[in-house]
Amino acid sequence: MIKQRTCVACRTKNTKDNLLRIVADENGNAVLDETQKMNTRAIYICNNKNCINRLLKAKDITKCVKIKVKQGSIQELLRNLGE
C-alpha cells in the first residue's frame, strides 16, 4: 500500500514522492527534508507555485502548520521555493 499525504495548502492527497516535506531543524528553522526520512514532525506541500503562494498568503502560517518553527522561517523557505 502506497502511503498518501495531504498538502497543507490545497488539501489534496498525493504520494510522498510528489510532495515537498518541510520540517524544523534543531534550531527551529524550517528546512526542506530532501531525504524524506528525518525523524520529526513534518508538513507536506505540493511542489507548485500555486500551493506555495496559497500558504504564504495564510494570515497566520504558524497555525496552518503543526511544526514548531521560528517566526518568519517558513515564509522565507516558501519564498525561496516559489522563485
- Strand percentage lies at 15-25%
Order of helices and strands: EEEEEHHH
Mean pLDDT: 82
The neighbouring-strand order within the major sheet is 4-3-5
Q: Largest sheet, described in full?
A: 3 strands, antiparallel
Radius of gyration (CA) equals 12 Å
Shape: globular
Span between N and C termini? 34 Å
Q: If you consult CATH, what is the topology?
A: Hypothetical Cytosolic Protein, Chain: A
How much helicity do the residues have? 25-40%
- Please tell me the CATH architecture by its name: 2-Layer Sandwich
**What class do helices, strands and sheet pairing give?**
alpha+beta
Give the total of beta strands: 5
The number of distinct structural domains comes to 1
**CATH class category label:** Alpha Beta
Unreliable segments (pLDDT under 50, ≥5 consecutive)? none
The CATH superfamily bears the name YlxR-like
Specify the number of helices: 3
How would you describe this structure to a colleague?
Helix content is 27%, strand content 24%. The chain has 83 residues and is an alpha+beta fold. It is globular and about 35 Å long. The chain has a single domain, classed as Hypothetical Cytosolic Protein, Chain: A, CATH 3.30.1230.10. Strand 1 (4-6) and strand 2 (13-15) form a beta hairpin. It has three helices and five strands, in the order E-E-E-E-E-H-H-H.
Fold blueprint:
Elements: E1 4-6, E2 13-15, E3 19-24, E4 30-32, E5 42-46, H1 49-56, H2 61-64, H3 73-82
Antiparallel strand pairs: 1-2, 3-4, 3-5
